[in-house]
Amino acid sequence: MGVHMTQARRALGARGEDAVVAWYEHRGYRIVDRNWRCRDGELDLVARRGDVVVFCEVKTRSSSAFGAPVEAVTWRKQRRLRQLARLWLMARAGDAPAGLRFDVASVLAGEIEIVEDAF
After folding, report:
1. What's the whole-model pTM score?
2. Buried-most residue among 13, 27, 46, 85 (CB within 10 A)?
3. Angle, CA of 12, 18 and 23, to the nearest 5°
4. Furthest-apart CA atoms within the chain: distance in Å
């Protein structure tokens, strides 16, 4: 894959994340973290509304040629996201939320679909 393709894919992903951030903020969520990284991986978005923390995996595609974006979040990916959420929470000791939720945001050709409490 060439440099141009990688840059284009990164730009597409960033636009998708920006749209999902706006979706959450419009609904009263506060974005707590974005692209949080540790040695085990990355959390795309962490949002909070009241006592609920939402970990959102964002999948952006320009077409459905390789399936719906949400289908890319396999059980292995879900397990990794749960582990990353634990690490994120441990890094913020003392700020224990009352509830946790895992969402998957699918951005396909500019259309946003959020699957709340996806797993």
Report:
1. 0.88
2. 46
3. 125
4. 45
